[in-house]
Each structure stands twice: as structure tokens, then as C-alpha cells.
Design brief:
The complex is a heterodimer of chains A (358) and B (326). Chain A has 358 residues and is mainly alpha-helical. In chain A, 76% of the residues lie in helices and 1% in strands. Chain A has a two-stranded antiparallel ribbon. In chain A, α6 packs antiparallel against α7, α14 runs parallel beside α18 and α15 crosses α18. The model of chain A has no long low-confidence stretch (mean pLDDT 84). Chain B is mainly α and 326 residues long. Chain B has a domain of 216 residues. Chain B is built from 14 helices and four strands. Chain B has a two-stranded antiparallel ribbon with strand order 1-4. Chain B has a two-stranded antiparallel sheet with strand order 2-3. In chain B, α4 packs across α12, α6 packs across α11 and α13 packs across α14. The longest helix of chain B has 32 residues. The model of chain B has no long low-confidence stretch (mean pLDDT 84). Classes of the chains: A mainly alpha (358), B mainly alpha (326). Chains A and B meet through α6, α7, α14, α16 and α17 of A and α7, α12 and α14 of B.
Chain lengths: 358, 326
């Protein structure tokens, strides 16, 4: 059963397995273990980012393509939900219409970008996606009639998922059973299903071909696989999953704007999480997302402390200011690409292999 | 140079310029737009030339090129700010004298940063495209944040010196003085580059290295040292381009590097990675296209450059002047 669920791709390291189980338990019971609105927000964000990062890993880690347009699809998913519910009211039909139409748009866009740039040269892909994504970001903030411009869109979700809906009047284990809780569990099961689906994809014969292309494109082509077709399919799949992650984000925040889903900072976060967690491992995205998002707020607090401590030295204080946390993220990123290229999961697996077997 | 025998891409620029004339209607507007487009194209070429050589020579894709642009522009705000007497004077010659040291300092600072960037960011990842993209992107973020630390995160105005403001009238067409200056500077840089690349020993080696790196190495030349030189010069040119771009936009933001990066990527893809002549044509096309569509259909202006790139790639999938052996 577990073998089937995990598509026969086990953690292959006892520490990693323990960590994953802990993470699963923590996320499954987050509303009961960590009370409070902020903790629940962080948990929901972890769920969303697990899907987003895993979908990016499908492209970067398994196929070896760098795309900078990943947040574009994330944004399309979020805007799909946002625009549909603003126009059609907070109904399930609106959610369905938004989801289907944003998936369609993502599919077409990913197909177009993939056909034009992957056909030519894989290295063009990174540059072309950067151009397309920046054009899309500007477009989203300019079409203010549809997207709400820079202000974004605030909208209502169906009654059942909003906090005014009460499942029962008596709190269970000190947590009120309201729509927010339902929404959280909707996200939880969506994220779990999507992650397992992606695990299934990368461990299928199709996924093996992707890894073959990553390892040696020329040889994969020589064996008889059409590299362009596989690359394009991989980029489409990853775009669709990113789009679903975007829909999850919109559903949770009940708001969407250019900064929340399209901004370049999110792209940077995703890149960093993939590298930290371990490229080419689906588990890495789960571990990485949890580590990163929890430490992100922590890092800012730490910087604030450091900045106050360094007040006598103005230049150091400026370097340590909480606004400059992206600087330290960048340094961390460069260092981890150099010294930590296999990420947490790669390290743990390597350590498990080194251990002499009894 | 290479385009001696392949005239078709070269003809694209006048074809585009003349092709839109009927749509714009009035010849004076057309002339204004064309000069503006050429000026923009020249500035973009200055920035893109270094990047395309770096890629051609060492197969290094530098996503952090934009940081040198922003740095050059910010250095220029400081230098020009210090020389308020000179920039404030209505005398054109005194203004030019003020801009000149600003350019020199910007080039020196960007070049120095380029040296450090090559040593610490690029050198450890030769031959690994994936890591290069990731690492240089990280370098870009770090550079942008450091600029915010030094100059602050806000947009800084970079006013043109007095004598360069306003326009000269050519018949009915108003042509901004600064754009003429940009065309002149761009032509000088292009002439210098073309001269170095085609008439000197170093240029010969660079061109040979772009064509076939291993052959040049096996003949006993240290191509890595050559590459460091090209990287530094490319960064310095990006700094110069940053000064020109900052004055063109009349303000600088720390994010400007990332914005211009997108443009120069489009340019070098159109030109064919590694080709200097192609980069010039790509830059001019992009500059003209941006100005024409900005005037005719502002809503599509965003996508005009991407559309242009797609069209060119459909015609020549490796860019207009594909460099052999890649």
C-alpha cells in the first residue's frame, strides 16, 4: 500500500523518513498542535509551497531546465480563482470555472513558450521565460479593469470555506470547527494528492526519460526519445501543477495581487527552496519548503536583532537591516549552490549510503 | 567582419524603419521616433556587446550582467551630483566635460566589480550551464541589494545637464539633443569594438576563441586570461551603458538592471549568441520596435520585443548571425 502510494520511491534514509513523517504529522494536525492564526497561515503557506516547489523541481531537478516563468503560472492560477469569484460571486461554480480556465491558459502558454524556445536551444529557455514572465507581470499590473492592477483583488470564497461558517458550536480540542479549518484541510489533502501524483510522474517511465535527458541529452535522443517533445511535456506538466498551487494560494488568502503571486521574489524563494531541499527529489521540496518558510520569518527577526546590536556601526546596521534579508538569502543561495549542491535530501541519502550495512 | 557577406539581417533595420513609415504618417514624427529608437538601440548595444562576447568565448551565460548596468548608473548619480557646477552650467562643452569623468568612473567601478564577479561567482562553475544560471542570478540579487544598502532603495533622479536638455529642430522633426549624443557615443563604442576585434591581435584571438576555443588553447594562448579581460571590458561597457541608460530615462532604480537584462537577452538571442554584429542589429531592431509600437499601439508595446524575437527565431533559429561550432 505504502509502496504503491510512494510509487516505490522511498526516502532511502532513516533520518529523512523520520523528518518526513514528522512533517506530515505536523501539517496534518497543525490547527490542533499550533494554535493561533499566524501559525495556521504559515502551515497553509508551507502546503502551497510544497506543491509549487515540487512542480518547479519537476522542471529543474528532473529535466534540467531552468525556467523563470514559473511564478507566471502560479499567478495565473491565483488570478483565475480571484477573477472568476469576483465576477461570478462566491460559488463553487465560480471556483470551477476559474480553475479550468486558468489551467487552459497555463497549458496554452506553456505549450507556446516550450515550442518556441525548447525547439531552438534549451539555454534560450531560461532567457525567454524571464522575458515572458516580466512582460506578464507588467501586463497583470496594467490591466487594472480585470486584475485590479497593483491593488489586486479581494474576494469571497464559498460560504462553507469562510470563517463565518460553523460546523459545530462547541470547540473540539480547543479549536473552533469553522470554515477556515475546512479550507485548511482542503489544502492539506490537495497538497498531499498533488505531491503523490508528482511522485508518480517522476517515477514512471516518462519520468525516467526526463532524467535521462537531464543526464545526457544527446544519448537520450540517440536512443530514440524525442527530447523536444519530452521537454515540452515536462514544462507543461510543471506549469499545470504550479497553476493548481496558485489556485490553492488564492483560496487560502482570499486575495490576489501582483506581489503575492507573480513577483520575482517568489521565484527566488522557489529556486532557493529547490536548491536547499535537493534538486531532483520530490521529498526535498517538502523538507525545503517547511525549513525555508519557518526560518524566513525567523531570519527577519534575527536580522532585526543584529541590526539593533550593530547600531554603533551604521554600515553594518544597514547591511543587517531586516529590509535587506534578500541580500542574505542571495548569499545563502550562492553558498548552497557551491557547497551544498545536492541539498538536504541528497546529503541525508549520501550519509545513509556511507553507513556500513550490518 | 561576418556581415560582409550576409546582408539580409543588415537590411532588416532599414526595412523595419521604412516599413512603418506609412503607418505613422507624418515624416517628422517618424524621424523623431527613428532617432529615438536608434539612440536606444545604441545604448542597448553597448550593454549587450560584452555579454554576447562572454557567452561566445567561454560559454558562460551571465544572468548577473544587469547589476553592472545599475551600478554604472548609480555611480553616475554620485559623480554628477558632485559636479553640480559643471552640469548646471548652460554651456554645452562644460556639460560634456562633466559627463565624461562620470562615464570613466562608472566604467572603472563596474570593471572592478566585474573582475571580482568573475573570480568569485563565475570561475568555479565553468562548463556547467545550470549552475551558471543559478549562481549568476544569485550574484545579481546580492549586487542589487548591495546597491540598495549604499544608495538606498528609492528611485534617484538623474537629470540631464542643462546644455543637453531640449531638442534641436530638423525641419518639423524635434530631435532631443541627448539622443544625438547617445547615437554618437554608441557609434564611437561600436567603431572601437569593431576596430579592436577586426584589426588587432587581441581581437583576432577573441574572434578565434569564439569560433573554436580549444583550437586557440592548443596553439598556446591562455584563453582564460583573455576571457577575464573580455569579462572586465564587458562589465565596464555595461557600466557605460548604465550611465547612458540612466540619463536616457532620467532616473535610476536598483531594479533597473533586471529590467534592462530582459531587453539585452532578447537582443543577444536575436543576434545569435556570441555575435557582435548580430548584437548590433538586434539592439537596433529592439530599440526601433520599442519606439514605434510605443507610439502606434502602446498596449502591445510590452510584447512587441518578444514578438520580434519569435519572428526572428522562426526565420533563423540560432539568431541572425549564428556563431559556428555552438
Amino acid at each position: 500500500m505504502i509502496k504503491r502510494l510512494l510509487s516505490n520511491d522511498f526516502p532511502r534514509s532513516r533520518t529523512l523518513a523520520v523528518l518526513l513523517v514528522l512533517l506530515l504529522i505536523a501539517l496534518a494536525f497543525a490547527p490542533f498542535i499550533f494554535p493561533g492564526v499566524k501559525a495556521l497561515n504559515v502551515a497553509a503557506k508551507v502546503l502551497i509551497f510544497i506543491v509549487l516547489v515540487a512542480s518547479f523541481d519537476l522542471l529543474l531537478g528532473y529535466t534540467g531546465i531552468v525556467s523563470f516563468a514559473h511564478t507566471m503560472f502560479f499567478g495565473i492560477g491565483a488570478y483565475g480563482i480571484a477573477i472568476a469569484t469576483t465576477r461570478m460571486g462566491p460559488t463553487w461554480q465560480a471556483l470551477g470555472v476559474g480553475l479550468v480556465s486558468s489551467l487552459t491558459i497555463s497549458f496554452v502558454l506553456a505549450l507556446l513558450v516550450g515550442l518556441f524556445s525548447l525547439r531552438v536551444r534549451a539555454i534560450f529557455f531560461a532567457m525567454i521565460t524571464l522575458a515572458v514572465a516580466s512582460a506578464f507581470l507588467t501586463l497583470a499590473s496594467q490591466l487594472s479593469d480585470i486584475t485590479g492592477g497593483e491593488d489586486g483583488l479581494s474576494f469571497k470564497v464559498p460560504e462553507v470555506l469562510s470563517s463565518s461558517f460553523q460546523l459545530s458550536s462547541t470547540p473540539f480540542l480547543g479549536v473552533s470547527l469553522d470554515g477556515r479549518l475546512l479550507c485548511y484541510y482542503l489544502l492539506f489533502f490537495a497538497a498531499l494528492t498533488l505531491l503523490l501524483a508528482m511522485l508518480r510522474i517522476v517515477n514512471s517511465p516518462f519520468g525516467r526519460v526526463l532524467q535521462a535527458i537531464r543526464e545526457n541529452e544527446f544519448r537520450a535522443e540517440a536512443i530514440g526519445y524525442r527530447v523536444v517533445v519530452y521537454r515540452t511535456l515536462s514544462s507543461i506538466l510543471s506549469a499545470l501543477f504550479a497553476c493548481l498551487a496558485g489556485a490553492m494560494l488564492a483560496l487560502w488568502l482570499r486575495y490576489n495581487g501582483p506581489d503575492t503571486s507573480l513577483s520575482f521574489e517568489i521565484m527566488m524563494d522557489v529556486l532557493l527552496i529547490v536548491v536547499i531541499g535537493g534538486m531532483g527529489t520530490m521529498y526535498g521540496s517538502a523538507i525545503g519548503a517547511a525549513l525555508f518558510l519557518v526560518s524566513q520569518s525567523y531570519l527577519q527577526d534575527l536580522l532585526r536583532l543584529g541590526s539593533e546590536a550593530a547600531a554603533p556601526l551604521p554600515w553594518l546596521a544597514a547591511l543587517l537591516s531586516p529590509d535587506r534579508w534578500l541580500l542574505w538569502l542571495g548569499v545563502l543561495f550562492v553558498l548552497s549552490v557551491y557547497y551544498f549542491p545536492t541539498g538536504v535530501v541528497g546529503r541525508l541519502r549520501a550519509a545513509a549510503l556511507d553507513k556500513p550495512r550490518p | 567582419m561576418k556581415f560582409d557577406f550576409d546582408w539580409k539581417p543588415l537590411a532588416l533595420v532599414p526595412v523595419l524603419a521604412l516599413g512603418v513609415l506609412p503607418f505613422i504618417g507624418s515624416p517628422s514624427t517618424w524621424l523623431t521616433l527613428t532617432v529615438a529608437g536608434l539612440a536606444m538601440g545604441m545604448i542597448i548595444f553597448i550593454i549587450a556587446s560584452g555579454l554576447t562576447l562572454v557567452f561566445g568565448l567561454m560559454d558562460v551565460l551571465n544572468f548577473g550582467h544587469g547589476v553592472f548596468i545599475a551600478l554604472g548608473a548609480f555611480v553616475a548619480t554620485t559623480v554628477l551630483g558632485l559636479m553640480g557646477d559643471w552640469t548646471g552650467s548652460p554651456d554645452l562643452w562644460r556639460n560634456l566635460v562633466a559627463i565624461f569623468p562620470a562615464m570613466l568612473v562608472a566604467m572603472a567601478v563596474s570593471g572592478a566589480l566585474g573582475l571580482a564577479f568573475e573570480r568569485f561567482i563565475v570561475r568555479p562553475v565553468y562548463g556547467q550551464h545550470l549552475k551558471q544560471i543559478l549562481i549568476t542570478m544569485g550574484g545579481m540579487i546580492i549586487g542589487e541589494e548591495l546597491i540598495k544598502v549604499i544608495w538606498g532603495p528609492a528611485q534617484i533622479a538623474l537629470p540631464l545637464p542643462e546644455g543637453l536638455r531640449g531638442a534641436v529642430l530638423m525641419g518639423d522633426a524635434a530631435i532631443e539633443k541627448y539622443r544625438l549624443l547617445a547615437v554618437v557615443v554608441g557609434l564611437i563604442v561600436f567603431a572601437l569594438l569593431a576596430w579592436v576585434l577586426s584589426r588587432t591581435k587581441i581581437g583576432l584571438l577573441i574572434r578565434a576563441g569564439v569560433q573554436d576555443r580549444e583550437m586557440v588553447e592548443s596553439l598556446g594562448y591562455r584563453i582564460k586570461r583573455l576571457f577575464v579581460g573580455v569579462f572586465v571590458v564587458g562589465s565596464a561597457l555595461a557600466g557605460l551603458g548604465g550611465v547612458m541608460w540612466g540619463l536616457y530615462q532620467q532616473n535610476v532604480t536598483p531594479q533597473m538592471g533586471a529590467q534592462v537584462n530582459v531587453l539585452i537577452f532578447i537582443v543577444i538571442i536575436i543576434g545569435g549568441l556570441g555575435s557582435t554584429g548580430g548584437a548590433l542589429i538586434g539592439a537596433l531592431l529592439v530599440g526601433l520596435m520599442a519606439n514605434y509600437t510605443g507610439f502606434l499601439v502602446p498596449k502591445v508595446a510590452l510584447f512587441s520585443n518578444i514578438a520580434l524575437m519569435v519572428l526572428i527565431l522562426l526565420w533563423r533559429p540560432q539568431g541572425v548571425y549564428p556563431v559556428a561550432n555552438r
